[in-house]
Every structure is written in structure tokens, then in C-alpha cells.
Amino acid sequence: MGQVSRVLIAGAGIGGLSSALALAKQGIKVTVCEQASSLGEVGAGLQISPNAMKVLRKLGLESKLHSFVFVPQHATIRDFKTGNYYLKVPLGEHASSRYRAPYWHLHRADLHSVLAQACLEAGVELLLNATVTHYAKNTELNQINLYLNDGRILSADLLIGADGIRSKIREQMLGPERPTFMGQVAWRGVVPVSELRTTIQPDACVWAGPGRHFVSYYLRGGDYVNFVAVEERSDWRSESWREEGDVEELKRAFAGWHPEVSDLLASASSTFLWALNGRRALSTWHEDRVVLLGDACHPMLPFMAQGAAMAIEDAYVLAQCLSRYSLDEALIIYEQTRKPRTTKIQQMSKANAGLYHMHGGVLGRMKLKALQTVSRFAPRVIQSKLDAVYGYDATKSFSSLP
């Protein structure tokens, strides 16, 4: 019933490539425009939870990714100084059994490379050095034209804006608006295990502390440890959303923390620094033959480890809608299906910032102690909240439809 045979995608990140692959598997001809001169991902680790893995499995990528993964044994929250556990939820085999899909840690570059290769094998056209300037409706052909800065004009039935929080597509659709700095910055980096002086637990670990938190977990079969160190800051003035970080400044910011943190940072030789930005909820995700996906329409704070997962879910749902409905119906159903879930995850992520950073002083510590008590004596309460996130299966959203 779908009325789309050709699609253009702005952005070859994880969301853009996931969308391209999902569409190509529906028999749709896809061209992806990427402004960079080569394919690749800046960043480090990703936590790919079972909800995202169900989509990657459906796209045929699970076996191709398997050699790159690390399987964490628990999701934990620990005290920044004592190391005491406020939360310890089993992952590993427990997650695979409960959610029918694994919880994996992947290097962002590995996932991106596997996605790119799968897209090429599926016939997706990947254009590099293809910087988007604007789009316009082609009323004569009832299509959308996409204009590139080198003078090329591409045409298709639909344009997908998967070009991130600073999306050119979103800006043209809804008007210029600067992202909102959320008062936090994140240092990110990877340290080879061979250079560590301490043992890092095989968990997805959040270290909670006053005004900041630290995340650590293994990558690539346990050969590397990924870290994300988030600090509240009001003086960010850089126009760049990422830049080379000062490792010594990072070490000073987390001085006096538990040895697993301080010893890990002692072995860090480089880091990137991100400003954490957000946007107000958009009035719409689509207009005529243009639709948004991933960070372009619902940027996530990284406090639920769901940014990539939500883009991957978006990609699958959008492809299914386009294959089943007329274009107008497909875009409406896509937004109606995805917006409540992504909004809820955004809210949960924002709430976690206060928890991890012990907002409220003594009250903040009391909230963590309460979490510790619930985790110990009523674990089903904790599990039920995770079930809503990890138990979701985007691949079955449309299984009952004709």
C-alpha cells in the first residue's frame, strides 16, 4: 500500500544508516547524503539495550556484531567515594532471558561500520562530501528536491532528516532555533585494559556524586574500558558541540573519587568534551514529504543510555509505516507511535540527572538511599521500570496489521 519508492536521507549516523537499511529491506531505493568526506563515528561506547537489539536482529545484524561486543553482568549505581551500591540489577543472561534479546556494549565505530556495510550490500547509495543546503517541493513531479552545496539536486518521494540535534532539515521545517545548553558537559574516552592499574567491574556502572557523575563499562570483548564523565557547568561558551578535552582538567574534576574512577582516569591520555544540549518538544515531526528522525526531533540526555536505541527504533517503525500506508498516513502514524515513547524516555533521562548528581544535598542522598532500599527489598519495582524500556519490541508494533 506504500506510495514511496525512493527516499533521500540527510545524515549517515546510526539513525540515518538504520533507516536506510530498514527501508532498503522493504524494496525502497535509498540515497544517504553525508557531509563528511569519509564514513565514521566520533565517540566511544554505546549501550545497546534489548529494545534496540530486537531491531538490529530483525535487520540481520546480530551475528555480524557479535565479535565486537562486551556483555555486562549488571547495571549499577554506586557511591562516588565509598563505592557502595545503591542499585545492582542483573543483565547478562538475565536480560537475554527476560527480554528475549541481549544487552550489549559496542564501540560506536563498530556499530557504524557494520551498518554501513550492510547498507551497501542492500543497495543503498551513500554520498560523501554531500552537504545539504535546503529542500524544496517539486510540485510538477510530486516529489521533494534536496539541494547540495556543490550544486547537485536530488529528487525522491520522501526526505528523512536524520542529521542530528543541529539538523538543517528541522531548521527549514520549523524555523531557526539554537539548541538549549542543559548546564552539563561530558568528557568521553576509551582506555586500553592493558594500561589500567586497577580492575574495573564487568558492569554498566554509574558513579553518583555531588554535581557530577561518572560512567564506566567495557568494550570490544573486554579489551577497552569506555568512560563518560559528566559535570554540571554554567560557563560553557564554545560554539562547538564537541572538542578536544583537557585530560588534566578532567582528572582534577573527579579527584578524590573511588579508586576505580581515579585509577581509570590516571590511565586516560585523551578525551573529547561534549556540551549536553536539548530542544523544546517539536510541534510536529513531519511536513508534506519531509520527516525527522532521532536527535533531529527528540535529542536525548545520555542518562538512560537510550539515544542510539531510540533512533534505531524510529528507523524500523518509519520503514514499516511507509511500507503499509499511504505517505500521509504513514508519517502521521509514525509520529503518533514514536512521540509518546521518546518523550517518556526524555523525561526519565532528565530525572536521572538529578538522581546521579545528588541534587538537593541531604535530600538527594536520601533519594539514593531509598533507591537502595527498594532495590534490596522490592526489586520488582525497579525491574518494572526497566521492563517498560527494555521490554519494548518495535518489530512487533505492526505485526497484527494487514
Report what the structure shows.
Helices cover 36% and strands 26% of the residues. It is an alpha/beta fold and 402 residues long. It has an eight-stranded mixed beta sheet, sandwiched between helices. It has a six-stranded mixed beta sheet with strand order 7-2-1-11-19-18, sandwiched between helices. The termini are close together. 46% of the residues are buried. Pfam families: FAD_binding_3. Residues 6-347 form the FAD-binding domain.
Describe this protein with a few key phrases.
402 residues, alpha/beta, 6-stranded mixed sheet, globular, flavoprotein, monooxygenase activity, oxidoreductase
Q: Record the strand order, biggest sheet.
A: 5-4-13-14-15-12-17-16
Count of helices? Answer: 12
Q: Uncertain regions: pLDDT < 50 for 5+ in a row?
A: none
How would you classify the helix and strand content by structural class?
Answer: alpha/beta
In percent terms, what proportion of residues is strand? 25-35%
Distance between the termini: 10 Å
Give average pLDDT, whole number: 92
Largest sheet: 8 strands, mixed
- What gyration radius follows from the Cα positions, in whole Å? 21 Å
Indicate the percent of residues in helices: 25-40%
> Tell me, what's the shape?
globular
Number of strands: 19
